[in-house]
Write a structure and sequence with these properties.
The chain has 197 residues and is α+β, with helices and mostly antiparallel strands. The protein has a single domain, classed as L-fuculose-1-phosphate Aldolase, CATH 3.40.225. The protein is built from six helices and ten strands; from the N terminus they run βαββββββαβαααββα. The chain has an eight-stranded mixed beta sheet with strand order 1-7-6-5-4-8-10-9, with helices on both faces. A hairpin with a 2-residue loop joins strand 4 (51-57) and strand 5 (60-64). Helix 2 (104-113) packs parallel to helix 4 (148-160). The longest helix has 16 residues, at 21-36.
């Protein structure tokens, strides 16, 4: 339930000024909603969970920074752009005021596989995860979060299951982990809210 939250990829961090508040408005409004519902947050031991991203261009996306799950409100200083990634080399290059989330490779795999997707939300909820596990597209229990293997697993799920239509998956090897995606934050969020509420 409370796996150690840290980066499992090699992070090439280009420190840069944050993007303007108008750029983060949509993503931050969505993030606020999921924090209030406890789907993004922090465990009693201080380990944060959950992250959110939006596509900025073809292979460039804005994502919440690592170790921000515990914060009730984020500002533009808590988001960074993923500007490059390489699954084979297990690397992520991000540009901004903070390092990218530990789930950046998972988000990248979804954006790379489904060009219609413009938003990805990763949340935690044990009861919901148990209910969805193996009833929706589910990643292998042997694959850890935030790894190149998870990115490969995302590609497999798109090929072998109805993930493109469902737009939601359970992470078999990441207890509580659920990922939803859509054309925008509202669409991805609605998939989760329809199940939770």
């Amino acid at each position: 339930m409370t796996e150690k939250g840290y980066l499992k990829f090699n992070c090439n961090w280009i420190k840069a000024s944050p993007l303007g508040e108008e750029t983060i408005h949509e993503i931050n409004t969505g993030r606020d909603k999921f924090f209030e519902l406890g789907l993004i947050g922090v465990y009693p031991n201080g380990i944060g969970y959950g992250n959110i991203s939006i596509r900025l261009s073809l292979n460039n996306f804005l994502i919440s920074g690592t170790s921000t799950g515990h914060l009730s409100n984020l500002t533009n200083k808590h988001y960074t752009q993923v500007v490059a990634y390489n699954f084979a080399n297990n690397t992520v290059t991000c540009k901004g005021p903070i390092k990218a989330s530990s789930e950046s490779l998972t988000h990248a795999a979804i954006y790379e596989t489904d060009y219609e997707t413009n938003a990805v939300i990763h949340v935690h909820n044990f009861k919901l995860w148990k209910r969805l596990l193996n009833n929706i597209p589910t990643s292998s229990p042997n694959v850890e979060y935030g790894t190149p293997e998870m990115a490969i697993e995302i590609h497999r799920l798109f090929k072998e299951t109805n993930l493109k239509d469902k737009k939601i998956l359970a992470m078999g090897g990441h207890e509580e982990g659920i990922v939803a995606f859509g054309r925008n934050i509202d669409e991805a969020g609605k998939l989760l809210l329809d199940i939770v509420l």
